[in-house]
């Protein structure tokens, strides 16, 4: 490597180990700038967005970079189960003056199962709908 009195034009580093967020793959060939960029991107997110990103990664199985670019294409229900989402969606479908007895005729378990077929995924910290 050519160096002069002003220093070297570039330096090489070998990163032997790193504590990385879930889903970020370690590479000994990645640059420090790459890992700093990831840290800056994560610092710019609100806690809710970080949870949504984590849920999106768990539901889709894509890598961190892809998920960071696409996690906003989802609806996140923190702390919910599919049954909870089914109940909430049912409540949102009914008009405000609907009689209470209609609930007896609705199959929430089947509706929750069908939500799972339609893009809703139950993850460790809630439910996420990806579109």
Summarize the structure.
The protein is built from five helices and three strands; from the N terminus they run αααβααββ. By secondary structure, it is α+β, with helices and mostly antiparallel strands. The relative contact order is 0.14.
Give me the count of strands.
3
Q: How much helix is in the residues?
A: 40-55%
How many alpha or pi helices? 5
Tell me the major beta sheet.
Answer: 3 strands, antiparallel
Q: Overall pLDDT, averaged? A: 86
| Rough outline | elongated
Structure description:
The chain is of the alpha+beta class. Helix content is 42%, strand content 11%. It has helices at residues 32-43, 47-60, 64-70, 82-93, 108-117; strands spanning 74-78, 120-123, 126-130. The chain has a three-stranded antiparallel beta sheet with strand order 1-3-2. β2 (120-123) and β3 (126-130) form a beta hairpin.
Which key phrases capture this entry?
131 residues; alpha+beta; 3-stranded antiparallel β-sheet
How do the helices and strands line up, and which of them pair or pack?
Blueprint: H1 32-43, H2 47-60, H3 64-70, E1 74-78, H4 82-93, H5 108-117, E2 120-123, E3 126-130
Antiparallel strand pairs: 1-3, 2-3
Helix pairs in contact: 4-5
